[in-house]
Amino acid sequence: MSDLPVVTALHLAPRHHAPTEQVDEIVVEAGRGVVGDRYHGSRHRHVSVQSAPSLTEAAVVLGALVEPGATRRTVTVSDGRVPTEPGALLRLGDPARPDEQVVLEVVRVAAPCALMETSVGPGAKAALRRRAGSVLRALTSGTVRVGDPVEGLLGD
Q1: How far is residue 125's CA from residue 116's CA, in Å, rounded to a whole number?
Q2: Which of 1, 14, 28, 33 could make an SS bond with 46 (beta carbons 3.0 to 4.6 A apart)?
Q3: Other C-beta atoms within 10 Å of 92: how many?
Q4: What are phi and psi of 138, to 5 degrees?
């Protein structure tokens, strides 16, 4: 069994401002993003990734639980820090299924948006500053499932 962090939650929002939907797996297309998500087909905002420890830190600042789906991020991982440096790479998926693994490249920090003041609660935007993960582009196509290992997180 691997000691790598794992995917703990996956969320999609089919339209801008639509509530997120929790799913067990996502299909990622290289250069296009997550099938069924509002950003599918965008230039580079293909997948957003956040870490559970960062959500815990934000919850302490906020004084309330921060649910992974409320932040509107696509992927939540169990441990580690999501890299924010443009060009850093993450690999998601089961090494036993290398043809389905997804390689993502960091584009930028995912800044918390004003919508989080409603989806998470008042004060969420400030609590999630520097804790909201990163926006990444999909370099390869594949399927990511809850429980899949994640490589490339800081602290791996």
Answers
A1: 6
A2: 33
A3: 28
A4: -85, 120
CA distances from 37 to 28, 73, 155 (A): 10, 11, 29
Cβ neighbours for 125, distance < 8 A, ≥ 6 positions apart: 112, 113, 114, 116, 117
pTM of the model: 0.91
Pair 58, 131: CB distance under 8 Å: yes
Q: Which of 152, 30, 150 is nearest to 88 (CA)?
A: 152
Q: How many angstroms separate the CA atoms of 115 and 92, rounded?
A: 27
Cα–Cα distances (Å) from 116 to 25, 83, 94, 152, in that order, read 24, 22, 31, 27
